[in-house]
């Protein structure tokens, strides 16, 4: 069995202080050449895919770290032009897009890339994003997930609105397509009314790989119903195993093949040629964190005033319950559990979060990193991993040049791409055309 | 004085029957390599820009001609990756997008292309598009233009929400940007409430070139207020001169420099080495039109039943007035005037429209085409032209290889790019940052 590996790319690295390292280009977050270089490195390592998170709002304090990003479907297209194999996954929000536009854009990326597009479906937490779209506050968590479900139903119907064999291209007869195979969808739902058909033919993959990343109760049910790959934050093997078993069961309970959902926990590998070198890089990054800024961010996530947190004390005893959090619910609980389990001060917690914002961090040698991945993969905790380099490009280079060869040698990772599409890489089938099936 | 030249690219050519020619690839409309090839040809000819029209709906009958297109901001990005100089303009609708998303996408294309993005601002006619976005019918023409004006105000503020010098990248101090130079816009209007700031820094051009293409009364006022380049359909020199003078005057009346709006009438050049060859190509294309299909399309534009039109009779005497048309108003009037002026039957009118849908068509030798362009350019009818090849790539190749050298020899067109951005090519300044000015 071989694992799946996705490179989650963010600016000059996932560690919030990575831009302050001497090696980092502090303008790289908006430089397409930086990302084209990263995509080429990931493709050299035969990774399944690269991935970009996103939200339609300026996240974080632009005073303290690079803020703002290139729009991800634009970025994916720029990467498609300089790569041949690697999958290309981007986040887009179901709360702040129209399904017709988004279906069309992802179908176009799938066409342009020859079948390498994936969509990480998010509902977008946060009132600040809502206020860029005429709302005063973010819609309720459950409401966002209901809209997301209908949104995916609409986009799927639009992607199926052309049969794969609709185009005839009969020049002599002057018949371009079989018009009966290009169908209106006439969707009428609670959130959307969309007639269709889509204005682009069915794409190489049928439709983009559907990815999901929320691990709340709503998020897990959504993933079980729709997702083909899941990004998740898990701190311990036991937690990851429980999540894995739970999500596979939910998927099976809905009548889907549990192997049709690939579960990829995140990991921030900090790689050194020796263990001491890895730990020193980790420590150097943490020293560059501005603790006051990080405290404000943590307070925001906890729906507290920054003054409620003391850098040198543990978290306050009286924190909101998960169901009072309207943002990223499961991440909130993970962070509180981590702080309590290891009895961390706020300052120590900030250090632990600086690299991966709640994802597992692991500092070690290439062999130790490979062992860490194998342990989870072999013990029912993961189908693969979401690799989140702390520093870019150096962290990705270290992973591709030092860890991947070990995994390949152990027979745990591909040495060549054996398919052409993102679905091929993840071992997932091209979806059947549901509208066509129902019409027959 | 040199003219500006834009290549308006559409599938395998603007002539509706172009896909039926032996040379045409009937799948090319969705093939990024086809468009990358066209962009490279246009860049070899030192053209100012390429342009893609768009609407968020499946236009035309997919049974009769290639229907559906790649989403144009995705397509522009794919072209940016394989070109270095040429400008990249795409249509996007103000009626069926959110300003935050669209501002971000065009800013991203401008970043990725190094300052070569342009936005053709359209309000999108037609009930069929409206029905992809939860509406029963298209909003009123005047309502669409009011929304468009506010939409452009919002996007402009978002593009100005970062000062050009906001990013400091001070690693030692841990200060990435001057947070005071990244400003909320707090827009509160009739159609939109948007807090901002945008989540991407100000782009190389400040913001994309603003292009407009409607020639109704509302459209002309909108162009005078906002547009930096205008695409327009004009059949005769006298009409083009009147439009040119009128739009320049409207622009000056609003306190803008009339030279800040470049007016580019469309032309469909059908080029042959001899006049007879050009006319034969023109006739061959017209023979491939399906007259019954074209009649249905014409009836739809006229808001008539197809049975109201007789292929071998002139247009009915009793047609709707322009103000009863909720679609493309000025194009409607142009077509009626053309048919009446030349006393054309419906069949003859269909032939005249088959190439350019109301744009001027001109069949001739390279010298005759160059003369035709110069005549309008020298006589106050145009600052340049929107070149609409009837067949692609052959029509663009003929224009670039045969007509451009004549214009260059006559000193009427550049022989090298002398700037790096789309605005440079059109001789237009980088816009000042209005929010910054008002803050000082």
From TrEMBL, chains A, B:
Gene3D superfamilies: Luciferase-like domain. This is Monooxygenase. It comes from the Bacteria. GO terms for molecular function: monooxygenase activity. The keyword Coiled coil does not apply. Keywords: Flavoprotein, FMN, Monooxygenase, Oxidoreductase. CDD domains: Nitrilotriacetate_monoxgenase. The lineage of its organism: Bacteria, Bacillati, Actinomycetota, Actinomycetes, Micromonosporales. It comes from Actinoplanes ianthinogenes. It holds the Pfam family Bac_luciferase. SUPFAM superfamilies: Bacterial luciferase-like (SSF51679). InterPro entries: Diverse_substr_monoxygenases (IPR051260), Luciferase-like_dom (IPR011251), Luciferase-like_sf (IPR036661), NTA_MOA (IPR016215). Residues 28-381 form the Luciferase-like domain. Belongs to the NtaA/SnaA/DszA monooxygenase family.
């Amino acid at each position: 069995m071989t694992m799946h590996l996705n490179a989650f790319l963010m600016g000059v690295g996932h560690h919030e202080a990575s831009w302050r390292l001497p090696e980092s280009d502090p303008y790289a977050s908006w430089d397409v050449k930086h990302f084209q270089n990263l995509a080429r490195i990931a493709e050299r390592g035969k990774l399944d895919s690269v991935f970009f998170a996103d939200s339609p709002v300026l996240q974080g304090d632009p005073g303290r770290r690079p803020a703002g990003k290139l729009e991800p479907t634009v970025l994916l297209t720029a990467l498609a032009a300089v790569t041949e194999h690697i999958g290309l996954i981007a986040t887009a929000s179901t709360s702040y897009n129209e399904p017709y536009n988004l279906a069309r854009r992802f179908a176009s990326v799938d066409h342009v890339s020859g079948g390498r597009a994936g969509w990480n479906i998010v509902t977008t937490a946060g009132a600040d994003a809502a206020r860029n779209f005429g709302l005063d506050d973010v819609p309720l968590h459950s409401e966002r997930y209901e809209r997301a479900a209908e949104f995916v139903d609409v986009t799927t119907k639009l992607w199926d609105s052309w049969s794969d064999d609709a185009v005839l291209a009969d020049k002599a007869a002057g018949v371009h397509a079989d018009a009966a195979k290009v169908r209106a969808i006439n969707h009428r739902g609670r959130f959307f009314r969309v007639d269709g058909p889509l204005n682009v033919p069915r794409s190489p993959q049928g439709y983009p790989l559907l990815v999901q990343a929320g691990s709340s109760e709503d998020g897990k049910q959504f993933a079980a119903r729709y997702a083909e790959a899941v990004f998740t934050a898990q701190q311990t093997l036991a937690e990851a195993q429980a999540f894995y078993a739970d999500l596979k069961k939910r998927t099976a309970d809905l009548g889907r093949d549990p192997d049709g959902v690939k579960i990829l926990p995140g990991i921030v590998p900090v790689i050194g040629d020796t263990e001491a070198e890895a730990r020193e890089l980790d420590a150097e990054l943490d020293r560059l964190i501005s603790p006051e800024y990080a405290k404000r961010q943590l307070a925001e996530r906890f729906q507290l005033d920054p003054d409620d947190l003391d850098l040198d004390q543990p978290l306050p005893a009286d924190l909101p319950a998960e169901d009072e959090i309207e943002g990223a619910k499961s991440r909130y609980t993970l962070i509180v559990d981590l702080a309590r389990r290891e009895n961390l001060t706020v300052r120590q917690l900030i250090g632990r979060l600086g690299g991966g914002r709640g994802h597992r961090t692991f500092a070690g040698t290439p062999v130790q990193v490979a062992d860490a991945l194998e342990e989870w993969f072999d013990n029912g905790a993961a189908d693969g991993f979401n690799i989140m380099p702390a520093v870019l490009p150096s962290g990705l280079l270290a992973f591709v040049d030092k860890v991947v060869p070990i995994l390949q040698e152990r027979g745990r990772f591909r040495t060549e791409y054996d398919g052409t599409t993102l679905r091929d890489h993840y071992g997932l089938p091209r979806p059947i055309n549901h509208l066509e099936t129902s019409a027959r």
